[in-house]
Amino acid sequence: MQIYKVGGAVRDRLLGKPVTDIDWVVVGATTEEMLAKGYRPVGSDFPVFLHPKSGEEYALARTERKSGRGYGGFTFHASPEVTLEEDLIRRDLTINAMAEDDQQNLTDPYHGQRDLEARLLRHVSPAFAEDPLRVLRVARFAARYAGLGFTVAPETLELMRQLSDSGELEALTAERSWKEISRALMEDQPQVFIEVLRACDALKVLMPEVDALFGVPQPEAHHPEIDTGVHTLSVLEQAALHKQPLTVRWACLLHDLGKGLTPKEDWPRHIAHEHTGLKLIKAVNERFKAPKDCQELALLVGQYHTHGHRALELKPSTLLELLQSFDVYRRPQRFEEFIAACEMDARGRKGLEQRSYPQADYLRGAAIAARGVAVQPLLEKGFKGPELGEAIKRERLKALKAYKEAASA
């Protein structure tokens, strides 16, 4: 029995990055031997065990063969005869197909270290094209390591294109896709994830609504970058630079989908794109079964982001409707995330990345003013039921009028 550290732990150590998760592969062992040593089995698909003390995962060296469609369409073979090299060749990228023993002696049969130095994401073998999830994984790695200068090797991008054109991407489950998408959006440069998906034709398969934004012009006076797709990437980039949470990043990606539906004869204007885009946002949300908080914020940002930009001009009654839509009284955090998404949208424009966004503080102040209305005095006056609701609304409107006057003074 020989035990090796494999994959990301080896890659990140060689890159000088912190190692968090460690994967281990065991060569020359049987399931019975692992159990005898106290390892606990997990999963039923292939032999993976938890270390009796550390709880880390140890997998028996295995080979795999394509047996069906999609991510799960493989049969695995694990036995003491499977070599380390045979186990490593089934991995996706050369930089993930390295192993080291307890003395840090490197086993690198597919030249992963060379590709690390060349800053290349390159597939290990033609078997790469058997797993459609790898299209998303490579795009995610591109987003993670773009800051270090990594790019996808042309021949790997071509394999990804073949996978995109084969129909295999449609076999991916919503859960597996969302796991990769959500992780990619939280990388340092999530816009690179979208760029790589687009470069290999995967974006038009997975998110045709986002793909449709590229080539759609916007008024240059408001959007110096002109192209709606380019703007969306810039908004996503700003969201990452400002360390926004996943909910905000997801909303940033989807906020302008309605512009993809604007008839060409109306370009570069996009009248009512906030409303036309809602059905598209809903479709993308459902396709990937995004978490409820991501779904809700994306729809609200899609519908109201232009309200956010025009906050200083809004009538108190419109401002109150906006606050009500977000339920700022019970869910203040969601409104804060809306403000963040609006600010990222404003900053995601060529040359305007550093421009101040006074709307943010104005909206926060409005929410505080509306929340400051006390209910108890109204109860003491005898209001109850629907009448109480109307009385609270009147008082909040009065508070917002006073707030707007004070802010304008």
Which keywords apply here?
single chain, about 400 residues, alpha+beta, Beta Polymerase, domain 2, Hydrophobic Seed Protein, seven-stranded mixed sheet, 11 strands, about 50% helix
Give a brief outline of the structure.
This protein has 409 residues and is α+β, with helices and mostly antiparallel strands. The chain is built from 20 helices and 11 strands.
How would you portray this structure in words?
- This protein is an alpha+beta fold and 409 residues long.
- Among the domains are: 1-111, Beta Polymerase, domain 2 (2-Layer Sandwich), CATH 3.30.460.10; 119-206, Hydrophobic Seed Protein, CATH 1.10.110; 372-408.
- 51% of the residues lie in helices and 9% in strands.
- It is built from 20 helices and eleven strands.
- The chain has helices spanning 8-15, 31-36, 84-89, 112-118, 133-145, 154-166, 174-185, 190-199, 203-206, 208-211, 228-241, 246-254, 273-276, 278-287, 292-309, 316-326, 332-347, 359-371, 376-380, 385-408; strands at residues 2-6, 23-27, 40-42, 48-50, 57-60, 62-66, 74-78, 99-100, 106-107, 120-121, 151-152.
- The strands form three sheets. A seven-stranded mixed sheet has the order 3-4-5-2-1-8-9.
- A hairpin with a 7-residue loop joins β6 and β7.
- It is elongated and about 80 Å long.
- The termini are far apart.
- The mean pLDDT is 94.
